[in-house]
Amino acid sequence: MTSTSTVTSSRTTPTPGFGIRVVAWLRTNLFSTWYNSLITVLIAWAIVIVADPFLRWLTVNSVVAPATADVCRQAQGACWAFIQEKYRLILFGLYPYDQQWRPAAVLALFAGLCTLSCFRRFWTPRLLLIWLAGLVVVGILMWGGILGMPFVENRFFGGLPLTIILSIVGLAVAFPIAILLALGRRSNLPVLRSLSVIYIELIRGVPLISLLFMASVMFPLFLPQGVTVDKLLRAQVAFIMFAAAYMAEIVRAGLQTIPRGQYEAADALGLSYWQKHLKIVLPQALVLVIPPLVNTFIDFFKDTSLVVIIGLFDLMSSTKASLSDAAWRGFFTEAYLVAAVIYWVICFFMSRFSQRLEHDLNRNRRH
């Protein structure tokens, strides 16, 4: 009788409200002791001192459109009229003005594909086909030449679409190459192992700028007379080579953490080399190296700004180009703040998704 009443009372105990939980969290994490409370108050005071003038510059004293550059220069706050005037140049670079709906559609398509890929229930072979079809649509939209869309040379590509294309295509192609290089470096075949080591150490031993310079300047010198390779393609190959070498070492580190018993169990089941790695070893190894892999993804995404040295205008380059207008010169803070927010949003999305993915995939390991 006592146990029944205990169970009944435990079931009817109300759950603490949101406000109570917030107060409990603050008391536990920020005001647990007198010195923690003092530190919390001092940090909050410092944040208010720093944030107040910035927020006033950002909102209260800012100038919004319609406004001229002279009005902005006389104001004490941010000039958002400049952003409204130049946002197309910042986002899409030199792409023809009347066709900029096409790169905008490309950005929307990439956003949809990435969102779809965040849900594990869609991780089927069909998702790969969807991505391939999506990349075909991206190529049709960016280049055109069919379906009534005028052809646009890729020397006019720029802004955020170029950054997204270089990073997503580069990482998608480099990742399987990195896995092959990591397996090759651990191979028992001396030739394969030596070739993998030479490639990885050679590429990792030089900066990305040197690879871009070689792809843009030196590589055309070795081509036969009259043969040319597209500049964007050369830059994309350089990024793929660079990313593959770095990710190969991360994957190799994950492979080394797998206990020897996993390999022996796979051999005892009679699995082939590729069955053993694809079904047992690699799934475990890749889960363990999600944080360093995502860190490489984020670095690679930001490194696309280096393509300016070979004449391609990514997001940072188009942001800088927006400041070249003599009438609007001097509003670099607003321009780079917008670019920083775009970079931060994309990098934060990758970071948060990787944390959730790591948590989900490691759930069985924790239990």
Radius of gyration: 27 Å
The tally of domains stands at: 3
User: What structural class do the secondary elements suggest?
Assistant: mainly alpha
Strand content: under 5%
Supply the number of helical segments.
Answer: 17
- The end-to-end distance, rounded to whole angstroms, is 35 Å
The strand count comes to 1
Percent helix range: over 70%
CATH superfamily of the largest domain: MetI-like
On the 0 to 100 scale, the average pLDDT is 86
Q: Please name the CATH architecture of the largest domain.
A: Orthogonal Bundle
- Poorly predicted spans: 5-10
CATH hierarchy, class of the largest domain: Mainly Alpha
Q: The biggest beta sheet, please? A: none
The name CATH uses for the topology of the largest domain is MetI-like fold
Reading the helices and strands in chain order gives: HHHHHHHHHHHHHHEHHH
Query: What characteristic shape results from the CA principal axes?
Result: globular
